[in-house]
Amino acid sequence: MRSVLVLLLVLVPALAGAASPIDSCKEMFFNQTVDHFAFNNMDTYMQRYFICDEHWQRSKEDGTAGPIFFYVGNEGDVTLYVNHTGLMWENAASFKALLVFAEHRYYGVSQPYGSESMQHLQYLTHEQAMADYVTLLYSLKSTQQLPDTPVIAFGGSYGGMLAAWIRIKYPAAFLGAVAASAPLLGYAGMEGGFNTEAYWQVVTRDATAAGGAAEDCADNVRNTWPLLFSMGKTEQGRDKLGQIFRLCSPLKTDYDVMRLAMHLKMAWDTMAMGNFPYPSNYLTSGGPLLPAFPVRVACSSMHGNLSGDTLLQNMSVAAAVFLNATLDEACNALPDDIEEDGIWDYQFCTEMLPQESYFATDGVNDMFWEQAYDMKFIAAHCLEKYGVVPRPKWISESYGTGSLDGITNIVFSNGLYDPWSAFGIKKNISDTVTAVLIAEGAHHLDLFFSNPNDPPSVTAARQYEMEQVRKWLHEKNE
Question: 94 near 462, Cβ under 8 Å?
Answer without folding.
Answer: no
